[in-house]
Structures are given as structure tokens and as C-alpha cells.
Amino acid sequence: MERLSLSRTSLTRNRRRTLLKQAAALLACATLLSGCSLLPQKELNIQPPLVKPAAEKVDAIDVKKAGIELKFSGVATVASSNNVPLFYKESGRLKQLYVKQGDKVKAGDLIAELDLGDFDLRMNLEKLNLERAQIELHSAKVNGEGGTSLRMKEIDLEREQLLIEDLQNQYESAKLIAPISGEISYADVKSPGDGLNGYTPLVTISDPTKLWLVHTADDGKTLSAIQKDMVVSVTIDNKQYQGRVVQSPSDAPLTGNKDVDERNTRLLYIEITTKGAKLELGKAAEIKISLQKHDNVIVIPKSGLRTYLGRTYVQVLDGDRRKEIDVQPGITTSTDVEIVKGLEPGMKVVLNN
Fold first, then answer.
1. What is the bridge-based pairing of β-strands 231-236 and 284-301?
2. 76, 131, 171, 293: which has the highest count of C-beta atoms within 10 A?
3. Domain limits, CATH 2.40.50.100, in the chain
4. Are 114 and 172 in contact (CB under 8 A)?
5. Chain centroid offset of residue 116 CA
6. pLDDT tens digits for 58-72?
7. What is the pLDDT of residues 130-157, one digit of tens each?
8. HSE-up of 294 (CA within 13 Å, CB side)?
9. What is the Cα 1 distance to its own chain's centre?
10. What residues have CB less than 8 Å from 191, skipping those under 6 apart?
11. Element containing residue 41 per DSSP (H, E)
12. How far apart are CA 38 and CA 281, in angstroms?
């Protein structure tokens, strides 16, 4: 029994040793495996994907033949070609202005009067003086006076007659009378008692039967290409009319008056040639004048024309490349340009947008 007990004890110890050895072996393997995982791994050499470069976007147009026209455009006003300014030759004080702008008047109508102050009193006194001189001269003749005495009475009468005539002229000069029938196209804003300067227009009468169009330019250079007798397209209240240039800055006569001559460099006068045209003073009109026109020529957008250091050229496509070609421009408008030399139909011009 003791041997059997010892034998079992020995067997138990052997099993324990075996289990410990197995556990140690497993632990060693685990340690080795964990150590391997800590070693640096070799990096994979992954190439980036190939990206095809985007094609350059080129804004180009095909060269073609077309028509091109350079026009002058502007706004004109219907005005009378016969305008009569009315003014006083001497300064004075206004008694009454009887018209205003836009009024219709007839020849002979009273337009304005000057204040003559005590004119009526002076006129009545002169009439009495004249009557006395007439009586004295008549008495001298009846009494048989002659020589110097009679002549002095004749002089007194003539003097009073001259004074009466002068007062009558003053009275007539104080009135502004319409010399023609028409419309008041200008009237100064004056009230009774206001002072007036001599030779300063108070009103202007315009003859509505003699009308034309007047264009006033800010800069006379814009009218330099316009010549007399050029055809004008006119639009008034959406109605079309034809006209012609009757005076441009290039043919305006020199007057010797600096202000008038300077003003004429900016004025364009146009006559309506359409028969039966009904025009109204002061109306606005759109005008167009053809200055140059070419048909069946090479025309490109203005954005395709380039300049650099005095050189004028365009860029054209030659396959995938661009090349520069010197060109000679012709008529140029705000949007297009004629190419006189350097381009042929079918070429592709690159726009400079």
C-alpha cells in the first residue's frame, strides 16, 4: 500500500513537470510571435494613378466673309430754321411780359412793354407846350411880326414838335411786337419791375412751318466724318423718316464771332426730306448716318484683334498650336473689325475673351 501511494505521488509530479514545460514552450512561442510583429514591414511601392491633363479650352471662330457698316448714331431735336430773337436795344425796367414759352403768336401781337414811368405826364405837358408855341407863332404872324422875332417863335414850335416826336418814339420803342407768326420757343422768366439789359433776348419766336433737326455733340470730333448731303435715317415716335445733312462742322461758314464759330463745331443740322412729315417743335429724334459700308469682306469680332508695341495681329489655330499673324484692319465698329489683309476664309481666329 505504501508503494502504491508513492507511485501515485511520483506520477502526479511527472504530470506537473510536463504541463509546466508545455506552458513554458507555449509562452516562448507567443513571445517570439509578438516580437516578429514589432519588426518593421517592407513598404509597398504603389504608383499614383495616371491623370490625363485637361485639354486647353480655346475660344475660336471660323473666318468668314460678311458685311460691315460704320454708323453715327445720336439724338436730335426738332427746331425751327427761322428763329427771331426779340430784345430791347436799351436797358430798362419791364412793365409786362405777355407771353410764355409754347404760346402761339401772330405777326403784330404785343409781346412785352417797358415801364416808362411818368410818360403820360410828360407827354401831356409837351402837348401843352406845343399848343402854346403854335398859338404864339400864329399871333406873331397876325400881328405882322417878322425878322428875328418871328423866327424865334418858329424855332420854339419846331423844338416842341421834336420833343413830341421823341416821346412818341420812346412809347413805340417800349413795345416788343412779333415780327412773324410762330411759336414762342424761348421766354425769359421775368416779372413786372425786373431790370432788362439792352440787346439781351427776352423771347424767341420760331416759325413752325420751317423745321429741321439739330444735333449738339459733346465733342465735335465725333462729327468729323459727316459731310453735307449725307442721307440720314430718322425715327420720331416710332415713325421712320428720311433726311439729309444740310450743315455739318466741316462746312459751317466762319462768322467772325468766336462763340458762334465754336458752337458750330458741335452742331449738325438735318433737313427732313420725307414728304408730308408732321413734326413738332421740341420733339426728340433718333438719327443714324452711314459713314462707311463694305460688303463681302472678312470680318471678325473685335475681341480677336490684338495690338502690342505698335503691332496689330491675330492668333490663329494651327493644329494644336497657336501662331500669330500680322493683319491690316479696315472698318472698325464697337463690336467687329474688317480685316483687309492677313486672313483667309476657313482660318480659326482665337478670341481674346
1. antiparallel
2. 76
3. 83-204
4. no
5. 47
6. 889 999 999 999 999
7. 999 999 999 999 888 888 989 999 999 9
8. 16
9. 136
10. 94
11. none
12. 103
- Which numeric CATH code is attached to 83-204? 2.40.50.100
Q: Which helix (H) or strand (E) holds 352?
A: none
270: closest CA among 209, 210, 224, 214? Answer: 214
Query: What's the pTM value of the predicted model, to 2 decimals?
Result: 0.65
Angle 270-214-254 from CA coordinates, rounded to 5° = 85
Distant-in-sequence, close-in-space partners of 81: CB < 8 Å, separation ≥ 6: 207, 210, 211, 212, 269
Q: Which amino acid is at 54?
A: A
Q: Which CATH topology does 60-70+294-350 take?
A: 2.40.420
Name the grid cell of 173: 420803342
Q: Where in the chain are all domains bearing CATH 2.40.420.20?
A: 60-70+294-350
Amino acid found at 121: L
Per DSSP, 248 falls in state -
DSSP of 127-188, one letter per residue? HHHHHHHHHHHHHHHHTT--HHHHHHHHHHHHHHHHHHHHHHHHHHHTEEE-SS-EEEEEE-
The single-letter DSSP state of residue 353 is -
Residue 235: CB partners within 8 Å, gap ≥ 6?
241, 285, 286, 287
In angstroms, the CA 183 to CA 118 distance is: 33
